[in-house]
Amino acid sequence: MPLREEPEVYEAKIARLEEKLRAAQAELQAARTDCAAQLTEMRLGNARIIRALDCSVQLIEALLVWMPEGMALSDKVKLAKGAWSCAMQEIRK
After folding, report:
1. What is the distance between the alpha carbons of residues 55 and 58, in angstroms, rounded to a whole number?
2. Would you state the pLDDT for residue 20?
3. Given this model, what pLDDT does residue 3 score?
4. Separation CA 77–CA 47 (nearest Å)
5. 3-state SS, residue 60
6. Per-residue model confidence (pLDDT) at position 60
7. CA distance linking residue 45 with residue 55, whole number of Å
8. Which of 12, 46, 51, 73 supports an S-S bond with 77, CB 3.0-4.6 Å?
9. Sign (positive/negative) of CA torsion 47, 43, 84, 87?
10. Measuring CA to CA, how many Å separate 85 from each of 53, 58, 72?
11. Tens of pLDDT along 9-68?
């Protein structure tokens, strides 16, 4: 039959394990906080990009409305307008 250790030995082992657990929990909390900060930063960046794209869309729409009916467009402008129209349809779905 194996020898059993004194209660103090078990208590010391438990204390070490609890300390390791607290350290791991603190590390996990720090990682969560860092992830939350990074997520907030990405959301702010995305909001700036979306705002800039929204302004661009408004400008394009205003320019297209302002153009005289039947005005001849260059092939590059026609392609760009077609691509823009398709992209806008995809967004609005």
Report:
1. 5
2. 97
3. 62
4. 28
5. helix
6. 86
7. 16
8. 73
9. negative
10. 14, 13, 18
11. 889 999 999 999 999 999 999 999 999 999 999 999 999 999 999 998 899 888 888 888
**End-to-end CA gap in the chain:** 74
Are 81 and 64 spatial neighbours (Cβ–Cβ below 8 Å)? Answer: yes
pLDDT at 66: 85
Residues 57/87, Cβ–Cβ less than 8 Å? no
Query: Which element (helix H / strand E) includes 53?
Result: helix 7-66
26, two tokens: 């603190």
User: How many Å apart are CA 29 and CA 85, to the nearest integer?
Assistant: 46
Closest CA to 81 of 93, 64, 68: 64
